Structures are given as C-alpha cells and as structure tokens.
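Tutorial handout. Part one gives the primary structure; part two gives the three-dimensional structure as tokens.
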Amino acid sequence: MESPSYSPSEYSKLPDSPGVYKYYNEEGTLIYVGKAKSLRKRAASYFIKSANLNLKTKRMVREIRKIEFTMVNTEFDALLLENNLIKKNQPKYNILLKDDKTYPYLLVTKENFPQIYPTRRVIPSRGTYYGPFASVKAMNNVLELIRSLFTIRTCKLDLSPYKIAEQKYKVCLEYHIGNCLGPCEALQSEQDYLSDIDQAKNILKGNLGIPKAYFKAKMQECAEQLAFERAERYKGKLELLEKYQAKSLVANPAIEALDIFTIVSDEKYAFVNYLNIKNGAVNTTKTVELRKKLDETEAELLLTAIVRLQDQFQSEAKEIISNIDLDGLEEPIEGINLSVPKIGDKRKLVELSLKNALYYKKEKALISGKAVEKKNRILVQLQKDLSLKDIPDHIECFDNSNIQGAYPVASMVCFLDGKPAKKEYRHFHVKTVVGPDDFASMTEIVGRRYRRMLSEGKPLPKLIVIDGGKGQLSASVEALKELDIYGQVPIIGIAKRLEEIYFPGDSFPLHIDKKSESLRLIQRIRDEAHRFAITFHRDVRSKNSFKTALDSIEGIGPTTTDKLLKHFKSVKNIKEASAEDLEAIIGKDKTARILGFIKQESR
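Part two.
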C-alpha cells in the first residue's frame, strides 16, 4: 500500500515494518530510494544520528523535504522493489550501474513452426526470449550451434496450416542444401519440427545434457534399424555438442547452477564481475562499474550488483559465491545466500571472476589516464604556445552582439580543464553604452565580470580570451587596469579572419599552427562564446519585439507583458501556452486578446 507524504520531522509516523522509503527534494524530485527491515528505525538513523553521517549523506539529508514509503511482506521483497524503483527513476544519490547497452537476446517465436533469431527488442507477446547475452559473439556461437544441430527454418513465411494446405509456397535454397526440411510444402510435420525446437530450447537454457541424451538415443535407434548413415549423422551432432561443451567447461560438471560475484574498488568506483555457471560451463559473464554516491561499503555495492545483475540476466541460481561476505551490511538480507569458498573448484571460479574484475579496473584506469594525459597535453601545449606562467586550466572568453547598436548584449563562457563549464556561463545586458560601440561594450562587461569576482573573493581565471582584434583587446585591458588587476591575468584577443592571436601592447600578432590542438581549443572557446552571445541577442530581440507588439493591443499594458514573460520565461513558451495556463496568470479577457493577436501574427 502506498503511503501519504510525510515531512522529515514526521519520520516517527512511519511503520515499524519492512518496506521501501523514498526521499524527495524541494522541487518534488525523487533523490533517494532505500530499503529497510524497519522503515521507522531506518528513517530515524538519518535524522537522529546525523552527526555520525558522512559528508555526502549529510548533503542529501539537507535536501530532503518529503518522505513516502511502500510496505512489503519481507526484506527480500523490499530489495526487489528498491531495485525496480532505482532502475525506473535513477535517483541522484543511489548507486547506478554504469551500463547503457541494449543486450542481444535469442527469440523463439510464438507461431506454427517457430523461428529462432537474434533481437535487442523484448516484446513478450512475440514469444520466449533467451538471454540477455553479454556479447553478440557469444549469442552467435550459440545460434550457430543450434543451426548446425537442427534443421530450423530461417525464412519469415506465415506457415499457418491453411496456407500450407493451399500450397502457397515453394521450397527455397535452404531446403536444397539441407538446412531446412521444407515445412512450407508440408515435407516436414509440425510435430517433428517442434521436437527440434524443444531440444534447441534446452541448449538455450544451458541444459546440454538433455540434447546429448537425445542424440545418443537417436544414434542407437538408427543403428538398431541398420540405418547407419542416419546413425552417423546423429553421431556427428553428438560430437559437435560435446566439443562445444568441452570448450566452455571451466569447472566440475557436477556444479549445476551457480552465480559468482567478485568486487574490487577504489575511492570513487567499484567493479563487479559476474559469472553464471550451468553444468560446469560459463553461461553468462559481465563486468560492471558502480560509482559510489554516499561512501557505500563494498558489501552494499556488492548487494546492489547481485540484485540488478540477477534480474537483468534472469538468473535462477540459488547459490551465490564471492570474494567478500555481506557481514558489512547494516541489515543482512534474508533470501540472499552468499558464501566465500576457501578451497576447491568453487574457489578457483572466484579467482577466475576476480581476475576479470581486476583486469577491467586496470583497463578503466588506463583509459582514464590517457584522457587526463590528452587534456593535460593540450593545456600544456597552449601554455607553451602563449608563453604563460601557469597551465590555463581556467579560461574565460567574452563576445558581444548587437544590430546597429540595437539590443546590445554580451556573453562570457568558461572552460575548466579544457571543457565547457556551462554553469559558469554568463549573459550581460550592456547598460552604459549608447550606439554601436563594441569597444566600449567590451570595457563595460569585462569590468563588470571581474569587479563582481573580486567582491565575491572568487579566483581569477588563468587566461582571458577576447573575441576580436587589437581594438577589443585594448578596451578589455582598460577594464583590467581600472580594477588594478592588469598583469595578474594573461589576456589575448583572437581575430576571426586569419585566426591571429594578439597580445596587449604588441602590434604584431602570433600565428599558431592551424593544425595545432591548442589553436583548436581557443577556436572552440571563441565559437562557443559567439554562439552564446548570438542566441542571447536573438532571444532579447524576439522578446522586445513581441513585448512592443503586445503593448499595442488595447487593454494590454507593460505590467501584463512583464507578468507573462516572468512566468513563461520566453516568447516561444507564451505562444505555445494553453488558454487555461494564460488565464491563470492574466485572466480570461486579456487571454482572449493575446490569443487573437498570436493567431493573427501566425498567418
């Protein structure tokens, strides 16, 4: 049963029973989902013992404005419900598996003479899906084996009884080369065909013993009937199946169904490898990355991976083994039976899984290291090309925009570590300049930006880039001089025509190699500032022209227009708003006038 909402101060009203709790922030966004043996006690641990929480959890608790819960019968049910809610909503503070793949499946269709083919879309009504497979190669190996052992059609014909009876189809090449027995011309009975499908399903389930016994029995039956050629064919199929099983065998065949999960971690991430074993063979293998959100323990991270991977790969294994136990959980979960083997075949399987997890961690560190190396290489090259004292890991770039002095605006974009930091972008309305004066506009906005930063005590950038040549650069330098910070921050101008770099006081520009990564970075920053300024100018122009047009409507004044723009944020949103939304802000009469104007304007 879904509960009513409670504020954080009302956590004592929660029931003392198993369930899932949901935390919402001020905007009503779900930020965390958790499970609990006792909802009341678990919620209390966040608000009563807050002094014992780590910094990340304290930050989350400060955001909580509403609590909802769902009661369930057992802790294991709570664990499954928590997993489903996290998958569906991906809350900000929950652990997420970093895995955006759509996995391949093999589908056995629900029809007369079923087909077997690969797909990535799961639509249950179409038939039975087997998988998901961790890789296309693994899936293709199984499909190739099935098609080698059984004569299953590859066509997509509708083989309903009346169509076969009406002789609508003719056998194709697959029949003539022996890969199909011609059910489309009633050359193979449906019962015989379904017998092959049943055996193929056993292989898809990982139950190789059943088709092996089937082929062995068929071989002996043919031999007793002195049909030696058919017996030889069944013998070949049996050998093919045994060869496939031998290739995938990693443990004692007596190990029927087993899941192995191993985990390695560092300060920010954990890496979990999953192996599913059936009859001694690896049926599924997958390694995933989990990012720590609230300084979770390895036991908590492992439990998350166990639930989600078993659900994802539809594992039916009752036994789980790992390299760590789950003793580190605050509340052990009934229904998860995990052990840590010390010797024997199972210990060897844990070591195999752990080897895969460690390799994945090493590869991720290598890739991450290369990315950092590339980023540093570009910034170091830029430092060298511009003869800077420090690596320019904080760059700000300015551009302005106007049409013959109308609606003058400007923009500033910020790049941190060579990447755009969009939260630091700023728009400016030019306030003190009359007419089309780009130089004066640049002096104003650069001065306003760094006067504000100095007053707030924020660190200055390592490089300032001005979109323009010597004139705009000189104007920006004047602003820095007025603030008495000229010389503290390197500043350059980039002229568009020849992509020349200008330095203050130097009449000769610097030409950086056009293929240089450092020049490309400056160009990218400049282009981003230009895009940001143009977009802002277009919005301001559109808003003002719309506002002017609205002011001309009888009964609509500046106050009404300002209300609309304040609420809907943009002209586009006003034009797309429904009559009900407009009426809620300005009333029925004014809404009718504005809708009439918008309708007339769109003709």
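Part three, for discussion. The longest strand covers residues 281-291. The chain has a mean pLDDT of 82.
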